[in-house]
Design brief:
This protein is mainly alpha-helical and 96 residues long. It has helices spanning 3-15, 21-32, 43-51, 58-67, 84-91, and strands at residues 40-41, 72-74, 80-83. A three-stranded antiparallel beta sheet has the order 1-3-2.
Length: 96
Amino acid sequence: MKKETINSIRILAAADPTVTPEQVENIVRACEVKQVHRQLISGNEARQIIGGERPISKVTLGKWIKQGKVTPVKISRRIYRYDRLEIERLAYGGQA
């Protein structure tokens, strides 16, 4: 984010009486994080992470894609990859 945007966020958060100074700094720190490169994994790896010892099926992964639970990254016409962080959130109970 641009510094001007971060400063505006800092001012707005500080103006809210329900936000503590520590929370303001946490918000600003989160905004300053540099772009993180995603680690992309194959469908087989994603299915194993989600299913553990018993991987989910390709059909189930396809259904979850249609439902919006998983977002594939298209590499080429026939190759898709998945964001490891998103898959791990889904596997361990968090909403991706």
